[in-house]
Specification:
It is a single chain. This protein is of the alpha+beta class and 303 residues long. It has helices at residues 2-90, 174-177, 233-236, 298-302, and strands at residues 95-106, 116-120, 125-129, 132-141, 147-153, 157-164, 182-188, 192-200, 209-213, 218-226, 237-246, 252-255, 259-262, 265-273, 278-285. The strands form four sheets. It has a seven-stranded mixed sheet with strand order 6-8-4-1-10-14-13, with no helix packed on it. Strands 9-15-11-12 form a four-stranded antiparallel sheet. Strands 2-3 form a two-stranded antiparallel sheet. The longest helix has 89 residues, at 2-90. The protein is rod-shaped, with a radius of gyration of 48 Å. The N and C termini lie far apart (175 Å).
């Protein structure tokens, strides 16, 4: 055995050396492939990180751009609204238009039979209606920075309705709510107001006029009185109505601009009125023509 080893030691050493060389080469190759794989993975990972960073940067840029644009838009809108507000508040407050349209529905003397009976909820009572007209009031101002007091006054009963801006009647106490012939309502914060008031038994002998007062300096004031729903219209007036402008000191100035635009429909328009001035139309009614049935006496008319 010893002799065999001595004789074959060199070949054995050669074989072992060759095996070690092969194993070492194989490990070196494996290490090289592993290093290459690690490098590729590292490059891929770095590329993914770079792509994610670029995507994140792009998204952040777009978001910041959108936020900047939105902020600029809001700033412009705020500036526009602020400028509009300043323009509105600095503009002199005037009443561009005041229009009153009065439509007469019933006219009967105080001794005649009523046209009908009506329950007034606010007063909790039923009344005999002999005369009735609807008073439509429209106000247009130069801006909404204002407040006005609507006043309805009559020798009969008034029932106002605030149509725009819509609101229910408001009363500070019970006595004011139970008032028959005068109601006031404070409204504001609008450039337009519209109300409708029913006047019951307020058009009677000695109280045949109708008017309106300017809440502010007014560019155009217009009144329309409509009797077209009244029977025997051609018989009830003794003469054409008169129109007046009532100055701040109470002095009456007769106006010539009143016109009859249709049978029983009268129109009056006046420009550049001052705050506190009023317009008034006075009608001349011959109450002797009315009977209990509210039809003028034909025989009396023939005399």
């Amino acid at each position: 055995m010893e002799e065999f080893v001595k004789q074959n030691i060199q070949p054995i050493i050669g074989i072992i050396t060759a095996l070690l060389t092969i194993i070492g080469g194989s490990l070196a190759v494996q290490r090289w492939f592993h290093v290459q794989k690690c490098d590729r993975l590292a490059d891929q990972h770095q590329a993914e990180i770079t792509a994610l960073k670029n995507q994140h940067d792009t998204e952040n840029f777009n978001k910041e751009k959108q936020l900047s644009e939105a902020r600029q838009k809001l700033e412009h809108e705020f500036e526009d609204k602020n400028q509009k507000y300043l323009t509105e508040t600095q503009k002199p407050l005037i009443q561009e238009v005041k229009l009153v349209y009065v439509r007469y529905l019933h006219i009967k003397s105080e001794t005649a039979e009523p046209a009908y009976r009506k329950f007034i909820t606010r007063l909790g009572e039923t009344i005999d209606v002999r005369s009735e007209y609807q008073y439509y009031r429209f106000n247009k101002f130069s801006n909404s920075n204002n407040s006005i007091t609507l006043i309805d006054r009559s020798t009969g009963i008034v029932e106002p309705r605030i149509m725009f801006p819509w609101r229910k009647l408001a009363f500070t106490d019970v006595p004011s709510k139970k008032s028959r012939g005068m109601l006031t309502q404070d409204i504001g914060d609008s450039d337009t107001y519209f109300s409708v008031t029913s006047y019951y038994n307020g058009f009677k002998e000695g109280d045949e006029d109708v008017g309106m007062k300017m809440e502010m300096d007014t560019q155009v004031a217009r009144m329309i009185a409509d009797f077209s729903s009244i029977e025997w219209l051609s018989l009830i007036f003794t003469k054409e109505p008169d129109a007046y402008k009532i100055e701040l000191n109470g002095e009456r100035t007769k106006l010539l601009g009143l016109e009859e635009i249709d049978d029983g429909i009268y129109h009056l328009e006046v420009s550049n009125m001052k705050k506190g001035e009023s317009l008034l139309i006075d009608f001349h009614v011959n109450w002797d023509y009315f009977t209990d049935s509210a039809v003028p006496k034909k025989t009396k008319h023939k005399k």
